[in-house]
Design goal:
It contains four helices and no strands. With 69 residues, it is mainly alpha-helical. The protein has a domain of 37 residues. The protein is rod-shaped and about 50 Å long. The chain starts with a helix and ends in an 8-residue tail after the last helix.
Length: 69
């Protein structure tokens, strides 16, 4: 696939990056939504789900490192 082929599906670089980020966070978003849906009287459930999600997927939980220079 060429770089130009990507722009057949995305109008610009920002749209491509946004789609990639959204896809990477889908499992965490699903876990949080499930926690909210089943929380009933436990207001801490979404926070606990977030903690579990970031523990399972640490690269998604941290901001990217900046290169020196």
């Amino acid at each position: 696939m060429t770089v130009q082929a990507l722009y057949h599906y995305f109008p610009n670089r920002d749209a491509l990056i946004t789609a990639l980020i959204a896809k990477a966070y889908e499992p965490l978003a699903d876990a949080l939504q499930a926690a909210v849906d089943t929380a009933e009287d436990n207001p801490a459930a979404p926070g606990m789900a977030h903690r579990c999600g970031t523990t399972r997927h640490p690269p998604r939980a941290r901001p990217p490192r900046r290169s020196a220079g």
